Amino acid sequence: RAVLVQADLPGVDTEEIAMSVVGNVLTIGAEVRQSDADTDNEKVVHSERYYGAVQRRFSLPASVSDDQAKAEYKDGMLILTLPKEVPNGTKKIAIN
Fold it and tell me: For 23-53, what is each residue's pLDDT tens digit?
């Protein structure tokens, strides 16, 4: 059993994405860089640049095993598979 998280991060390089899990809180952050330019006969008419950081925190429904977590980034979609942590000392109780 695992928690599946999908996040849209279009136009972000994988090197700019940071993820962490502390307790049952998942943090996803990214450095966003975007630039647009309008040209007319190879002359720049209008240019805009945007740089900034984005970050979101999510409370997970259960504690997860971060050492077995898997992350995949494809076509602007980040997909995290976070296996649920199995509590230590779990025992079955027999009925007499």
Answer: 889 999 999 887 788 888 888 778 888 888 9
Location of structure tokens 């979101």 = 56
How are strands ordered across the β-sheet holding 17-22?
17-22, 25-40, 43-59
**Residue-by-residue DSSP string for 22-89:** ETTEEEEEEEEEEEEEEEETTEEEEEEEEEEEEEEEEE-SS-B-GGG-EEEEETTEEEEEEEBPPPTT
Residue 85 token pair: 């942590």
Whole-angstrom CA distances from 71 to 51, 89, 90 are 25, 29, 28
Task: Report residue 87 as tokens.
Answer: 């509590």
**Can you read off the two tokens belonging to residue 26?**
């998942």
